[in-house]
Amino acid sequence: MLPLRDNITTRGRPWMMYFILATNVAVFIYQVGLPLPDLYRLVEIYGVVPTRIDNPFLLLFPSQWATLIPLVTSQFLHGGWVHLGGNMLYLWIFGDDVECTMGSIRFLVFYVLAGIAGNLAHVMMNLGSSTPTIGASGAVAGVLGAYLMSFPYARVLTLVPLGFFLTVVEIPAVLFLGFWFLLQLVSGLSVVVAGADSVAWWAHIGGFAAGMLLIFWFRRSTRRTGRYAGVGVAGRRSGRGTYHGPRYR
After folding, report:
1. Is the model's pLDDT at 225 over the cut of 50?
2. pTM strictly above 0.90
3. What is the pLDDT of residues 61-81, one digit of tens each?
4. CATH T-level fold of 2-248
5. Would residue 78 show up in a list of annotated catalytic residues for this protein?
6. Which residues contact 164 (CB under 8 A, 6 or more apart)?
7. 111 neighbors 159 (Cβ within 8 angstroms)
């Protein structure tokens, strides 16, 4: 299933979402221009390698914090146009609404923390792996988790394959995102049983779970959130549209 748009209309511009999206695209264009040896070196240095950061006690020692930098930098590297495009599509559709629930600066902090949580989940499920992991999917998954908690009854216009045909249907966000998470969970568990995969499924799972939790700390109070011309948390419309409420990832 491929999301095309949702039915939430926000007032104001999600400037931080635009900035994050543009940064990802700019970094990828820089990657494309590198010679292969330099590109491999970039991924090796700034991607997440579990064998380097599989000790959680590193967080207790400031002298070791440099080892944790890839938990952030890996979020802005991608392995191809399809990898980048998929992540940015989901960020574009769901990120603006989540940003409007918390404000731009909070959204940036939230996004990075969700990405870190996704990376740590990947590390914990791949102890001993020396394969670099890159991609924004952990952070984007956090956005999806926050969206699920904030707009469960919004509707997502979705491209759905039916055999050899494609159709477009509106799906409630709770079903669309619930199915998405279930797919990640099943895939992640299958990797545990069958072995390594080219996709860091546990980064998706960890980021999504982190987003579901972090939204309660990062979203603004209902009096400060502003107005939406769409469906709110309770899934009901008010007359004035008020809102109440390497391995690739």
Report:
1. no
2. no
3. 777 777 889 999 999 999 999
4. Rhomboid-like fold (1.20.1540)
5. no
6. none
7. no
